[in-house]
Structure prediction request, 442 residues.
Amino acid sequence: MWKNIVISIVLLVSLTSGASLGVAATHDHHAPVEFKKPIINTGEKSTLQKLIDATKPGDTLLLEGRVYRGSVSITKPIKIQGVEGTEIHSLSNALTITDSENITLENLVFNVEENAIVANNITNLTLSNIQFLNSNAGLLITDSQQIKLHNLTIEGREGHFKTKNHGVAIYNSQDVTATQSTISNVLDGFYFERVKGIELHENTITNSRYATHFMYSDNMNITGNELTHNMTGFMIMIAKNLMLSDNRIAKNNTLNSLGVYFYDVENVVFQKNKLSENTISMDIQNTKKVIAQHNEFQTNGTVLQVKHSPDFAVTDNQFYGNILTVRSDKERLQLANNFYDDYSGHDYDGDGIGDTPYIATNSFGQWMVKKPVYQYFIESPGVVVLNMMDTEVTGDHQLVVTDETPHSQKQPYKWKWDIDMIQLMMSTIVLAGMLVIRRKLI
Prediction:
């Protein structure tokens, strides 16, 4: 009996084990394998966002000299300050700032695929010493006010303009100041649309479509900027109350390039600017109350191209080395008291004003604009005779523009002496010390 019981137990254990093995074998070959998500270390993005989240409103977040990756957002008033080597890299918008005030960013380098910084509904935003390298775009700011941009460096990528975006784009905002920034290889350096109160000083913009582009914007003060090697320097359309002075607009000289383009602008003072080597120096259309005074126009193709701007006043400027001074429609413009290096009249009474009018348009100049190769015939006998015939045309001709009071001599340049009294005193002390030491040594 015991023998039968032992045999039964052994058989039962064997069957149970075999069933278990069979289940296990079925599970191994046919049941779906549970998928476990890989553990991806996104610590650098999380690190920067956590640092921002941990910063209390009004405090300063000091970043290390390292690379922070990913996109982050700011929704409270803080200051973020980097050191040498602090960079933010991202495959999309790197930094989004929304619905806040009193935000400051300093000493940061962005290297991103899309906009480096996107800001919306911000009051008092300050960006200083920021670099945007190899980025598709720099800043996009909307519906904000009191924006201060200082010492930005925006370097876009090489390529056609259609692959680029604006360096700084600002919409529906007010009180914007941008100073001492350098922008190149973007669509438009500064693009402002529906912005009121713009201060642009001492910026340098090169190799872009438009260096500056303003639409539906008012109350601008633009001084001391360098706009060179662009398709157009200043592109300003539908705007009021502008002051542009002491800017240099040069070498915008590819096909159809312009130094300055005004369309439907009103109440503009354009003074003490230097415009050289532009295909067309200024293209003025549908303007009111625009005055250009004390500017230098040098070696441009056409200096002034004017349509529907009969009160456009051009006074006390200097023209030399240009191919054609004026092209205009029947409404013409107003020229007075300018100096022209190709003026052939005389000043017998010695009052500094030529005795005969200066004719700003000539037939050969018009042809040279259409066919630049004609410039090789400038001083040929036939062209000389043609120009003499032009001078006999009276001012009654509809397309002839004249300056009735041209300056007979170039106006002297007024040097600006900006003396730093502290530096002058220090230099004087050092010089006096050197003289004393020299005497003792001798």
In short: The mean pLDDT is 84.
